[in-house]
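Hi Y.,

Following your request, here is the sequence exactly as I used it, all 210 residues.
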Amino acid sequence: MILSHNKKFIYFHVYKVAGTSIRKSLKEFDDLSFSDFPFQKNIRFFIGSKVWFLSRWAIDHIKAEEASKYLPAEIFNNYFKFSFVRNPWDWQVSLYHYMLQFKFHPQHRKISKMKSFDEYIEWRIAEDLELQKEFIYDKNGKLLIDFVGRFESIQNDFKTICSKINIPQMELPKANPSKHSFYKDYYNKHTRDLIASAFKEDIDTFNYEF
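Below is the corresponding structure, written out as tokens. Let me know if you'd prefer a different format.
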């Protein structure tokens, strides 16, 4: 998450959707302060940033619905809010390789013991399923942000965001890319169908196809 009072915007970071590149580009405008959230939440955020197995407590990937409960209404309702999403089949390939390559990832050890990408997909869906939609919609299906960019058109969409928040146009740097082949190469019919079923809400909401 990035919160800018100066430029009046909030960025919600869906993991493995070029968030590190976006955060680097917008870092100078981030003036999130300790006073923006209640004391208890700040303690939770701090613990999440320091304890790897509690990393989901960190503010980095806070969901819009949770933020809306704690940020003052005049901030959450009036600031320009945006995020980016990614094709779910591609998203899982990128996430899988990132966890394999980044040894400090909380799930690196678990994923590295798996025999194949197929096994990873089975595990992901059965035990740790999380939708991109959950980051920016509430539980009643209401979109909580103003702009949803797409990884597949990220530079053009980021230029739109720059215009919206009144900052100079800039090229996004490449940061934390996971190394892998084209995502379609990793799927067979079974795993392709598993993603289609498990991530149906993301696929339908953001209009993706294999």
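The CA atoms of residues 86 and 153 lie 10 Å apart.

Thanks again,
Q.
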